[in-house]
Automatic annotation (TrEMBL):
Residues 182-191 have a biased composition (Acidic residues). It comes from the Bacteria. Residues 160-191 are annotated as: Disordered. This is Trp biosynthesis-associated membrane protein. InterPro entries: Trp_biosyn_TM_oprn/chp. Pfam families: Trp_oprn_chp. The chain crosses the membrane at residues 12-36, 56-76, 83-100, 127-149. Keywords: Membrane, Transmembrane, Transmembrane helix. It comes from Prauserella cavernicola.
Length: 191
């Protein structure tokens, strides 16, 4: 394997981990976190199964943070990448805490609606909603740790991605430009 490919591998691992974390957190917001038996009420209203977005507000914003971090990883350099890595480690730990702490998404049940049998069961926490959120948290945490550890060695965007104003243009006098036009050349394409 070439040296440049080996140097790029940690960068792509971080980028892919952040993209997968973003998808996982976004998906966790739509998955069922609590199975609600038919006829159970919450605040006097009949309730159906509760998804992550019904219970909490954090999965989607943190998914967007993971997605935006990809741009920071690709565009940042040395110290900026390390700071972003530390931030991602903290965010990953917070995601794990929020997803694993069942008290964070408990709901106050009002009781059973009239006409429904209360022997249907009790609300149950599901496995997949929190598990997908935990997977997203682990991916964010691992991406942050790798970025903190190896971020300063990862390749960064080169000069070909810099703004055209950043390059030095040759200085031409006004006479040179007019002469080029007279000769049938386009003076703006000269280097």
């Amino acid at each position: 394997m070439s040296e440049s490919a080996a140097a790029k591998r940690p960068l792509w691992i971080v980028v892919v981990a952040l993209l997968l974390a973003s998808v996982a957190l976004w998906g966790a917001s739509g998955l069922t976190w609590i199975d609600v038996p038919r006829g159970l009420t919450v605040d006097g209203r009949l309730s159906e199964d509760l998804s992550g977005s019904d219970l909490m507000t954090w999965p989607v914003p943190l998914a967007l943070l993971a997605l935006a971090s990809v741009a920071g990883v690709l565009g940042g350099r040395g110290v900026v990448r390390r700071i972003l890595g530390v931030l991602l480690v903290v965010v990953g730990a917070v995601i794990l805490y929020l997803a694993l702490n069942g008290d964070a998404y408990d709901v106050a049940w009002s009781g059973w609606a009239p006409g429904y049998d209360d022997t249907a069961g009790v609300p149950e926490h599901t496995f997949w909603g929190p598990a997908v959120a935990v997977a997203g948290g682990v991916l964010v945490l691992l991406a942050g740790a790798l970025l903190t550890w190896r971020g300063h060695r990862m390749p960064r965007m080169g000069a070909k991605y810099s703004a055209p104003g950043g390059r030095r243009a040759e200085k031409h006098t006004e006479t040179d430009l007019w002469d080029a036009l007279s000769d049938g050349e386009d003076p703006t394409t000269r280097s």
